[in-house]
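User: I'm preparing a small set of examples for a lab meeting where we compare how different chains pack in three dimensions. I only have the primary sequence for this one, and I'd like the structure in token form so I can line it up with the others. Please keep the answer compact; I'll paste it straight into my notes.
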Amino acid sequence: MKETGCVLLKSGVLTAEDLEKINRYTRRAFQEEELYTFSVVLCDNEVDRDMERFTVPALERLGELFLGKTGIFDHAPQAQNQAARIYDCRVECLPERVTRAGEAYHRLVARAYLPRCPKNEEFILELESGIKKEVSVGCSVAEATCSICGADRRKEECGHVKGRCYDGVLCCTILDHPTDAYEWSFVAIPAQREAGVIKSFTEKGERTMEEVWKSLSGEGDLVLHAGERQQLAKEVAILREQAACGRQYREALEKSVVRLCGIVSPEVPHEAMERAAQAMQLDDLQAFEKAFRKRAEQALPLTPQLAPAEQRASTENREFQI
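Assistant: Understood. Below is the structure token output for the 322-residue chain.
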């Protein structure tokens, strides 16, 4: 199991500096005996399962962005899912360990707190027993470049395949210049996507739906933020409803074309016109329907019987032209 994305319980007495940092986020001053604290590794500079890695400066910036962020469960951004709040972050270097990219291993370690109360007793027990241990983070970065040629992977395909080695250098995507940190979340199964780092490459945070749709045609695993999944599900539901309406409209249009063809050109076999209508593009169907209707109105009195008398008279006096 990776060290990235896990809780590291460390015993020890809270210092005055710790209490000062925590009380920046509370409405009253809390004492040490009222609080439970723990450390958590949020992310690191190792190449992850998506063949992406943060730079060390990116970890430093994320440390600033994650200050004050609350931990939730399963990336569900709901108030009742808030579990703890980060009050301190630092980047640690473990020089004895080397990443797959050949760098000294660095990790972003955060300190989080929650109040000791009956409601949190079960959660604290799960933390101490190792049941609640794995976490993942949601963030946004401004740069995602190829480790081989430096190409911006958001804008172009450079031809280098993530996971392959080129002249002994592992190809991966380098993530740099974080612009936002959404949240950090306790997850149940870190081997799945939710346990990896959730990244979206926009300047403002969550991607627009147009960018999400574009990513659906990309290669590799598709990783979506919880809000993006919800919005995508809504858009799919709307599109399905619109598609059903479109099918109904086309079917009605095909039937109208076949019927009007029978009026203006009865020599055309019914089945032949049906096959032709089914094969037409929508704009062709609309053009044929318009032309057939115009000729049919010249050939037959299509005006309803309840229409005003002068309108019926005008229709009855038309010449029959087929």
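A couple of notes for your slides: The two ends are 79 Å apart (CA to CA). The CA atoms of residues 4 and 43 lie 5 Å apart.

User: Perfect, thanks.
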